[in-house]
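Moderator note: this is an archived Q&A kept for reference. The question asked for a predicted structure of one protein chain; the sequence and the answer are reproduced below.
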Amino acid sequence: MHFDTLIINAHIATMNNEFGYGNNTPYGTITDAAMAIQDGKIVWLGKTVNLPKHTADNVIDVTGQWLTPALIDCHTHLVYAGNRSNEFEMRLNGVSYEEVARQGGGIVSTVKATREASFDELYQASVPRLKDLISQGVTTIEIKSGYGLDLDSERKMLAVAKKLGEDFGITVRKTYLAAHATPPEYKGQNDAYIDKVCEWLPILHAEGLVDAVDAFCENIAFNLEQVSKVFNVAKSLGLPVKLHAEQLSDMGGSGLVASFDGLSADHIEYLSMKDIDKMAKSGTVGVLLPTAFYTLRETKLPPIQAMRDAGVNMAVSTDCNPGTSPSTSLLLAMNMACTLFRLTPEESLAGTTLHAAQALGLSEHKGKIAVGYDADIALWNITRPADLCYLIGQSVLAQVWHQGQVVLKN
């Protein structure tokens, strides 16, 4: 056998049920293990002592360091212009998130700055955020539009997202989120604006800029009927859907996205038992966004135990955005998922690997260490996998690969 790259003497958290994950082996761990990579894929996995006869172009002895699947940030608004630290101050002085939005702040504030930015300005503003995420082991990221709210600006955001993935050698999933807020020119005309959202979607999809479709279902955004209209267009184009749901109130959005066999319902602090059951039946992932919960000083916890009991898989993400989660640390989000939401470290790692891949429709290629999967892997200077959650945002990354290619080496 010949390998492009062979990693030996590693401890590997595979997150793979073939090695006991979800049964009796925490993290699906293989100790004193080896992994072989050929043509961007994992082609051999097991104990180092059991390696078959082979040759390899590159042999890396990691002497007891830990390998995990590379991390996946499955919900971000990473491409944007402007700054909203003023709103952070407003909220700390007692102004609610809803009132900030009604005063012209919130999403609409970022829309103005993003519309005014050129493609190059928007790209350059986004690069440092992406680099931060890569430095914490992220090689797959979802980037949403939704700060353009007109055809040209939505196109610009999605094109920037596409170029970021190409330039940095990682996987970027581009999500169309024009149904994020009502732009000023359509104030009081939500139905008319949703008609435009539906009109733009096939255009941008034909240009190769859309991998999935999202919306914001909430009292300050769009109702079930309006979201359904957008989702029906997505369905006609063969595009998967996801939804910002139950962040501030229970509007039944999670049940709606489940009825479309959606990839995920995200935020879900106010998720009901009825919709949990619907998500369990459809396989819709619940995406937890603890950094937004923390920033907004929310007190309504997502129903974690009820989702566990129902078998709803839970992902964890940064929700990187300028208003409610100005964070580029997925490791911090993992810690917060444990400390605020009481996930276990194993659940939190699954939430940024295995279940995050599911939330992006990538479960057949990414999210676990398995033969035939993409060689998206991260090497960490840690004692045990729980350190990734325990160390409160510290970056302990030694090296990260995307499809067998080194993306970052510290």
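Archived answer notes: Residues 187 and 388 are 44 Å apart (CA to CA).
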